[in-house]
User: What shape does this take?
Amino acid sequence: MNPAMDQQTSKRPLSPQWDPWDPWHTRSTKGRYELTSVEFTVTHLCNLRCEHCAVGEMLTEVEAEPIPVEQLIRRLEEVDTLQTLSITGGEPVFNPKTVREIIRPLLRYARERGLYTQLNTNLTLPLSRYEGWVEDVDVLHISYNYRDASDFHRIAFARHKRDVSPAAAEKLFVQMVENAKTLSKAGVFVSAETFLSPFTVPHIESIHRDVASMGCLRHEIHPLYPSDFARDMELISLDEYRDAVRRLLKARVPDVWILFGTLPFYPCSSREEDVELWRDLHREEGVTVRHDPDGRNRLNVNIFTGDIIVTDFGDIPPLGNIRRDRLSDAFDRWLGHPVARRLHCYCPAARCTGPNVIVADTYYPETDFQKRKARISL
Assistant: This one.
């Protein structure tokens, strides 16, 4: 294992000035993309079936046998450039065995190596499920797209095979909110993500206030990805998206970091309002635009099949398999892929590394980003 000394206390604190998941840092300093982040899909079990789930059809009732965690760690050891480690699912905390045999060993390894960590969870399970290990997580990431328990009931069980009573849904919703408050008070960095959809856009100000009231240090704003369960959901227009961003900026709670992920606006746009929004977001204190990690500095690994992929909810075929391939080799293979070459444009003066694959295909299917140039400098 890399330096056995515990480096947890020496890591630079997360802030709008330092987001180690953002590939901008490597691209702008090294002149190329490097594999600094690995995400493991550690389960396909989940107690929810959310309408917006981008991996919903992968969810199952019975889990397959995972690759031993020792083998996963050996592959991580081969990546000299590694800075961050993410854990996703399904609901990673659903099965105590997954926590005991996969999550806790990975977090121990990350702590000893000095890596930043994120765990994606719905936070609806008993608080005791997180005790004894959550302090090793740098970011506890939740999805929050609700006004109240009624919204949660409709959204979180939209694709469930069994009827779930409003009372049962309310219990989970209240538990999620109370867990977020308790963990935030205990010093855990809780980051809540909201997808901008026809439902959330009219309520984005109140959703933001709720995120702040739970003690979340960061509110992430993303497009709704038309993938898997969400493939037939209605998408908002770019005009609606831009308006929602403007309204959120006016209503924001100053102490909450707002992170716009996979933002569908770029400094090379022919529309002046898009360029102006890009400029304003980069001037706003406590607001950041995160460049897409998927394929720019991160790969996802399915710990059951071993497949190494660009993202857990994309359609690009596997780049290799962790049983036989080095992660860095798979990453280099991706950098030469036609899709990567089409989208990996780079405008240092405007601080832009190009669009997300799904966002580009959804909103800009005819656009060749390699032929566009930024219209501003920051």
Remarks:
- The chain has one domain: 8-371.
- The chain has a mean pLDDT of 94.
- The chain is about 30% helix and 15% strand.
